[in-house]
Amino acid sequence: MQTTIPSTAVRPARRRDRLLTVLAATAATLLGWVVAVPLAGVELTARAGGGGEQRVTPVAVAVSTLLAGLAGWAVLALLERFTGRARTLWTVVAVLVFLVSLLGPVGAGAGRAATVTLVALHLVAAAVLVPGLRRTAGR
User: Looking at the DSSP assignment, which residues form a beta bridge with residue 54?
Assistant: First the structure.
């Protein structure tokens, strides 16, 4: 005899898993910042719009990772609502957004070490968010 789990039981678990994925990505990028900046001594700065340079703080890293994760979650939820191929479509969109996001650090990193560090932080966020949120998508 096969039993089915009511959808009300599945939703909280899915939300919890998505929240944990977003928080894990944030923690991972913050750890990357700690390794690069205080431990390795990288001066993590980016060129600002007015031609000056701006330090990349742990708050900036955390907030941008949280926003990226929550945006990915929202897009996934919308795709699940409107299409039967949400997992595949979301993965394609997420990878494309990640690739486009690399243009930021490549163009704005102030120095080689800062550029490499910023690219690495983007890679870390994507390495957690893409498979983590994809795993929570309905089949």
Answer: 46
Inter-CA distances, 117 with 10, 14, 87, 88, 128, Å: 38, 32, 30, 30, 17
Q: What is the pTM of this model?
A: 0.87
- Measured CA to CA, the distance from residue 38 to residue 132 in angstroms comes to 28
Percent of the chain with pLDDT over 90: 70
CA distance 80 to 74: 10
pLDDT of residue 139: 65
Q: What are the residue ranges spanned by the domains of the chain?
A: 8-136
The 3-state DSSP composition of the chain as helix, strand, coil percent (nearest 5) reads 75, 5, 20
Question: What is the amino acid identity at position 84?
Answer: G
